Amino acid sequence: MKKGYLYIILATFLFSTMEIAIKLSGSTFHPIELNFLRFFIGGFILLPLAIIRWRKAKRKFGWHELGFFALTGFFCIVISMTFFQLAIGYTKAATVAILFSLNPVFVLLFAAIFLKEKMTKLVVLSLAISLAGMLIIINPFSLADPIGVTLSVLAAVFFAVYSVISRYGTKKWRYGGIETTCFSFLIGGAELLLLMLISHVTPFATFLANHGLALFSEIPLFSGVSLHSLPMLLYLGVGVTGIGFSCYFLAMEETSLSLASLVFFIKPALAPILAFLILGEAIPLETAIGILVLLLGSLITFISNREVPKIIAEKEKNPPYRS
After folding, report:
1. In this structure, what is the dihedral angle of CA atoms 154, 159, 161, 163, given to the nearest 10 degrees?
2. d(C-alpha 29, C-alpha 44), whole Å
């Protein structure tokens, strides 16, 4: 259990510095280039542990597995994390961190719709409170950076889609969390690399450039990599992505899903404080109020995650009478 708490602390800190580190990298990397590099590096960091677990489970890697991880990698890396990277360029790192931390709320909603998982009253209450907190932070009546906010919310939504598909795989085919994350990162990175290469094909590059999508035309592969930028790249790839996700999934194994989810519950409060200390980003009053509301919603989510297993266990212990 002590190991589990250590994993939670490490994962929380690393995830809370993710947006700040990307912001500090500035214009050194193209957003999509950085997305590709850090997840490819993170995938390779996870690979040895993933292979050990895959072999221990005596699994084979065929077309079925390739298709599944291509799907999860597409939603996670190609869509969600691309939106995430672009969002940081349009708005504050703290805003992106807070809004992206809403992904567990969307996971609960999508899991109820598509996986038919139980939605308790506490879950519904947490959804309502969390969405209220998001609206307070966004303040739709005076949006200063609507593009950044929209991209942040889309990143959270599609990361939740990735999470629900991954959860389906872990339930149906018993894929482990680390294996799913590793192979999703590597195959999703390969899919993104393919799209980056296509962006250099002259007809596509010209079409994108002429239709207001120059950002997606001729995406560089390794142009930002240098001795000067290497420490930040390694921190994002090895630290935040590789070690961060490893700690998160190991925390689940050492403790429980409920306790491990504290990572995303604490991040909305910790990330803005770190952004203030490191980047000097101010914390407006509405953002501070929104953070408190989000933390309340997250606390209710945490409580509901602890109560549902108890209810299930009680029902199994005392099944209804049948004649």
Report:
1. -160
2. 20
Q: Name the phi and psi angles at 141, rounded to 5.
A: -80, -15
Kindly tell me if the per-residue pLDDT of 4 is higher than 60: yes
> What are 30's two structure tokens?
């193209």
The 10 Å Cβ neighbour count of residue 55 is 9
Identity of the amino acid at 88: I
Other C-beta atoms closer than 10 Å to the C-beta of 204 total 15
Write the pLDDT tens digit of every residue in 87-107.
998 888 888 888 888 887 788
SS3 state of residue 261: coil
Residues 28-75 pLDDT 10s: 899 999 999 999 999 999 999 999 999 999 999 999 999 999 999 999
If DSSP codes are grouped into helix, strand and coil, which group holds residue 197? Answer: helix
Q: How far is CA 83 from the centre of its chain?
A: 11
Q: What does the pLDDT read at residue 287? A: 81
Q: What is the pTM of this model?
A: 0.85
Instruction: Check residue 227 and report its DSSP letter.
Output: T
- Residue showing tokens 């894929």: 175
227: exposed, middle or buried (C-beta count within 10 Å: 0-12, 13-18, 19+)? exposed
Question: Counting beta carbons within 10 angstroms of the beta carbon of residue 255, is it exposed (0 to 12), middle (13 to 18) or buried (19 or more)?
Answer: middle
